[in-house]
């Protein structure tokens, strides 16, 4: 049981880390203007994505070690041989996905370190971190089916991961903006106001993709019946996850229709600190719910 909890925590850490890296990189592409990608806040985003990639490699190595121990039946990690790792990495789809993830994350780190055009840098980091995030589909139910059904399941899982990553990363990007030491300046608050007000279209697309892919995933796993929602642990966890997502949507609506317009109005009045503080508190609450959602996803992924 202790090993199951360690696996869940490890999966949660991977989901959080990879989602954050991909989402922040994407946010820098669709939310920041060309000139803004050269500002200090963009440099913080670049560092954030690079650090997420470094952590992602470390977590992936730990994850592969845990998987090797479980698959080999070894009692201790000291019993693991290089042959077991070679067999897992070269002989399974999960191992191939793991290799692609490591390469994609290493590329992301390289892009973060080397001097590039800021726009090209964030686009390239979005692609590499997006590929890395997509490989997590092979570590869950997405890899349980064969043939066309398997391709549909993987595509749905990857879409779900990307949409979730875009949401989680946007929350982190907003929090970085809202907690920046420069948040008292007119320019930084103006960026926060514009991006929070303009997130509605992207947010709507994210919610649509999450809903559509979530329905597809449920049908492929549990079948076209609602009975498992109340009769199985999987269904009960899924219902809990849906309640948390509804809470996130309620907070997002408050941000969109009350707090963001209030922040925009404060730009003219000069009373920015209070408006930023209220938005920051709401973002922290939404981010907390996001962590709980990903924790439920990490648990759901190990259930049969």
TrEMBL record:
Membrane topology: Multi-pass membrane protein
Subcellular location: Cell membrane
Bilayer-crossing regions: 12-33, 45-68, 88-113, 120-140, 160-178, 199-221, 233-254, 283-302
Protein's recorded name: Copper resistance protein CopD
Annotated keywords: Cell membrane, Membrane, Transmembrane, Transmembrane helix
GO CC term (a single one): plasma membrane
Chief subcellular location: membrane
Any GO BP: copper ion transport
Domain Copper resistance protein D: 195-300
Pfam families the record matches: CopD (PF05425)
């Amino acid at each position: 049981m202790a090993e199951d909890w360690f696996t869940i925590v490890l999966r949660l850490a991977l989901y959080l880390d990879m989602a954050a890296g991909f989402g922040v990189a994407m946010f820098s592409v669709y939310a920041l203007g060309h000139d803004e990608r050269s500002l200090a806040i963009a440099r913080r985003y670049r560092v954030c994505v690079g650090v997420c990639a470094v952590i992602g490699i470390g977590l992936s190595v730990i994850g592969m070690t845990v998987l090797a121990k479980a698959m080999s039946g070894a009692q201790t990690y000291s019993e693991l041989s290089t042959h077991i790792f070679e067999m897992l990495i070269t002989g399974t789809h999960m191992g191939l996905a793991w290799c692609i993830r490591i390469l994609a994350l290493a590329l992301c780190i390289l892009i973060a370190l080397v001097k590039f055009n800021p726009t090209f840098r964030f686009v390239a980091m979005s692609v590499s971190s997006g590929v890395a995030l997509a490989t997590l589909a092979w570590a869950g139910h997405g890899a349980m089916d064969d043939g066309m059904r398997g391709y549909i399941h993987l595509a749905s899982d990857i879409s779900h991961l990307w949409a979730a990553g875009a949401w989680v990363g946007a929350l982190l990007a907003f929090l970085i903006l809202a907690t920046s030491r420069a948040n008292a300046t007119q320019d930084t608050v103006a960026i926060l106001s514009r991006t929070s007000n303009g997130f509605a279209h992207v947010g709507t697309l994210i919610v649509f993709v999450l809903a559509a892919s979530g329905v597809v995933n449920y049908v492929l796993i549990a079948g076209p019946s609602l009975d498992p929602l109340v009769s199985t642990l999987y269904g009960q966890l899924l219902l809990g996850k849906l309640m948390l997502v509804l809470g996130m949507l309620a907070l997002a609506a408050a941000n969109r229709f009350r707090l963001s317009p209030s922040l925009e109005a404060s730009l003219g009045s000069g009373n920015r600190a209070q408006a930023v503080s209220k938005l920051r508190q709401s973002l922290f609450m939404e981010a907390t719910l996001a962590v709980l959602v990903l924790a439920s996803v990490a648990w759901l992924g190990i259930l049969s």
